[in-house]
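Fold these two proteins, one after the other.
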Amino acid sequence: MRQYLKDTWEGIWTVLVGMKVTWKHLFVPSVTIQYPDVKPPLPERERNRLYVNMDDCIGCLQCERACPVDCIEIETVKALPTEDLGKTSNDKKKALWVTNFTIDFAKCCYCQLCVFPCPTECIKMTDVYEFSEYKRENLIYNFSTLTQPEIEEKKANFEKFQAEKEAKKLAAAKAKAEAAAKAKKEKQEDKSSENSQDGEES
């Protein structure tokens, strides 16, 4: 009988403990954040979607090499000597056209490892965390500011410059070889004329 009463009391006591929490919150006014108009404050070191400031990007590929999941893809074209690409915000001279700078956020693990090696600090984490998409390909963000015709033009210009440079190099090598052959021929002619003179004297 004693055990029965004890078990009954413990059952009632546990219900009262649970109801204490319930009654406590029952009379407290509810606070609801009116999301998405009002958003909760984010932690100081939050890691969300990446942003790339292409005005400061020098195409060094440091962030691409640092990425552990290979979600960053960068392609560059060397600028011509006549082209002035300007300087970055920290006074670093730009020498490459960045024709492609894509980040696949479907692969990104938001580790922030790509941010630290950047010498111009052009890539950084933002506070944007709402960028879900219905299609996976929409999560591939292209930060390059060049249009497709401009990209093709830069590639064509560089290929033309390289071809002209190679042609000049070959022409210089050919001229050098011809000059060496001519000098050798003149030397042989001088030598043969000296030999013929020695033969006449003897």
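Now the second one:
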Amino acid sequence: MAIAAYGPLESEDGAQRFEIEALRPAKDHFVVRLAGIGDRDAAERLTNIKLYVSRDRLPPIDDDGTFYHADLVGLAAVMPDGNPLGTVTAVHNFGAGDIIEIKPAAGGSPLMVPFTATAVPEIDIAAGRLVVVRPTDIE
């Protein structure tokens, strides 16, 4: 619900801005009325547009164990023994939980790692790294 206080939302390319006029919770989602979107047809044309809030309008984080997903992108991913694994390139959620995408240091296809305490036991934003235990290494 706090999103309504962050100000205008923007499309991914920044070309469109949307003001929230009303926001209410529904069963498993939110229902929003946007300024200038007066009917169902206009609303349907916005289907699948990703909306963003400028980082500078988000509340600051004071807790060391708390971060925004965007803070993970660019971190070095290392194995528990310190050997480099790659670089975090994205955090996804396809409906079953967060997944970290890692571009391997050695090249090749991206690694998709569940973002769980077992698979990612350590995150150190200040040091610019996180530790990854690959599923094949979990006992």
